[in-house]
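Subject: design request, 366 residues
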């Protein structure tokens, strides 16, 4: 029996009836992993939406029966509201995918929208040399409700996970991605931008990898095709990180409270514009003190577009000298999970700085 973080990896797989012949070895084999979220929620006794076990998915979505794929469903023992997702859950999910990696051609992860961008970015780092699609999706409206977007999102995510190049027959999207409302987004570029409309996610600083209309239109030049190598699943993340968002009038007490958290290993600084911040002596002293204590600082812009260019203005000129790493055009979600990933590697000062400043999974543009 395989265990990870005290949880059994040998979870039962439920085959779903589809149009594919179970004996047809050419039909794509896809695994749906249900973690929780709005897509599988129901109203509880208090009148609130709460996670439920997603059983009999084929009854709730009869459209699945028309798909030419061999499908199986794996549900976590206890569905997780995405607001409760933690780094240990990312590591467990990666191990689950690794457990079934050889048996399936692609994976679709049903996940809550609130932290989906964090989870997709984290899995992007953890699953190194990924050669198969891992597509995150979910819904703004539960699957059993009227006008739910669950059916369209899941059906298309499955089609993307099964997609092959028309001529070469190779995997079309060997990346961790987010599919939502007709757009496929790289996992390390996704950001949730809407809570009341179906277009919940945006691809920040990078074009979508595919769009779904009458057909699927893939942006093949934007998809990462890496040299073939065996999948490597990392097993350690450093969770002792923080985010410090600057605002006019921020005080020394606030900055110190964040940067002096006991045991803090890293902090994402959400700065202004192209990476600018106050030049007050107390502020720079707080950053210098954090660096002396070994806290890694990653400079990320609050802007949705553009990039950090440390030293472009006087207000960021001191950052490089203090040892602060510029995040270029990385998102906050990808920056937080990258800090957790890189610091979890335990590779020393010089290599840590190099990795934080380097594009690892398409999170930074050249």
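Subject: RE: design request

Done. Sequence follows.
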């Amino acid at each position: 029996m395989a265990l990870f973080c005290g949880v059994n990896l040998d979870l039962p797989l439920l085959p779903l009836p589809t149009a594919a012949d179970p004996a047809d070895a050419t039909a794509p084999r896809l695994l749906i992993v249900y973690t929780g979220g709005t897509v599988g929620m129901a109203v509880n006794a208090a009148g609130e939406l709460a996670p439920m076990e997603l059983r009999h998915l084929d009854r709730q979505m009869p459209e699945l029966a028309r798909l030419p794929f061999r499908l199986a469903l794996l549900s976590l023992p206890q569905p997780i509201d995405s607001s409760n997702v933690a780094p240990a859950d990312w590591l467990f999910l990666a191990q689950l995918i690794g457990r079934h990696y050889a048996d399936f051609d692609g994976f679709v992860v049903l996940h809550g929208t609130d932290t989906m961008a964090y989870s997709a970015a984290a899995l992007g780092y953890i699953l190194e040399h990924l050669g198969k699609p891992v597509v995150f999706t979910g819904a703004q409206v539960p699957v059993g409700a009227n006008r739910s977007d669950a059916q369209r999102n899941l059906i298309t995510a499955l089609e993307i996970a099964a997609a092959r190049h028309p001529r070469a027959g190779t995997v079309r999207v060997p990346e961790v991605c987010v599919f939502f409302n007709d757009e496929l987004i790289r996992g390390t570029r996704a950001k949730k931008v809407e809570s009341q409309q179906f277009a919940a996610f945006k691809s920040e600083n990078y074009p979508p990898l595919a769009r779904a209309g009458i057909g699927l239109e893939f942006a093949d030049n934007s998809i990462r095709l890496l040299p073939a190598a065996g999948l490597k699943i990392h097993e350690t993340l450093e969770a002792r990180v923080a985010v410090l968002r600057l605002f006019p009038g921020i005080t020394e007490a606030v900055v110190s409270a964040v940067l002096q958290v006991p045991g803090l290993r890293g902090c994402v600084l959400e700065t202004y514009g192209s990476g600018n911040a106050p030049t007050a002596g107390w502020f720079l002293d707080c950053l210098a003190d954090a660096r002396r204590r070994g806290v890694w600082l990653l400079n990320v812009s609050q802007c949705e577009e553009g990039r950090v260019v440390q030293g472009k203005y006087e207000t960021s000129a001191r950052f490089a000298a203090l040892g602060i790493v510029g995040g270029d055009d990385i998102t906050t979600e990808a920056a937080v999970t990258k800090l957790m990933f890189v610091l979890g590697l335990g590779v020393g000062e010089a290599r840590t700085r190099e990795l934080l400043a380097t594009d690892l999974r398409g999170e930074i543009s050249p």
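The chain has nine helices and 21 strands.
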